[in-house]
Amino acid sequence: MTSDARVGELIRTYFSTEWPRVCPDATFAVSGSPAPRDEVSVHLEVNTTWIYLRCWVPRVLQVWGTEELHRAAREILEGARIPSDDGAIEIGQGERADIGRDGRWWMSVISFPIRVGAK
């Protein structure tokens, strides 16, 4: 059975390959503490059943500023099947939540359910 650590590694590797291709103007991180790293940035977190993608844009852009980040995330993650040791890691439909202001930033989160061992 694919370990949780291995699942996280496979998802982070997949995302790190795809994000620059789909959304090259936004910086991204797949490790470390979640915090904005640039004017437009995202941070990927993986746990045993979910992927969380935190998105930051300058506060003046607010909701419409994160729309492009959410579109890119959905293009990369929704419906993806990542090969693993015992089947595939399937990623489901993303759900958006606008968090609001965080200092000079507007933050939102998009979460994706994952299923391991899909045939």
Secondary structure topology:
Layout (H helix, E strand, L loop, with lengths): L3 H19 L4 E3 L11 E6 L3 E9 L3 H16 L3 E4 L2 E5 L3 E8 L2 E14 L1
Parallel strand pairs: 1-2
Antiparallel strand pairs: 2-3, 3-7, 4-5, 5-7, 6-7
Helix pairs in contact: 1-2
Features of the shown structure:
29% helix, single chain, alpha+beta, elongated, 119 residues, STM4215-like
Strand content: 35-45%
Dominant shape: elongated
Helix-strand makeup class: alpha+beta
The H-and-E topology, N to C, reads as: HEEEHEEEE
Q: Distance between the terminal alpha carbons, to the nearest Å?
A: 13 Å
CATH top level label: Alpha Beta
- Counting DSSP H or I runs of 4 or more residues, the number of helices is 2
Q: Which residues sit in consecutive blocks of at least 5 with pLDDT less than 50?
A: none
Radius of gyration: 14 Å
Give the averaged pLDDT, no decimals.
88
Helix content: 25-40%
Please name the fourth-level CATH homologous superfamily.
Answer: Phage tail protein-like
| Overall structural domain count | 1
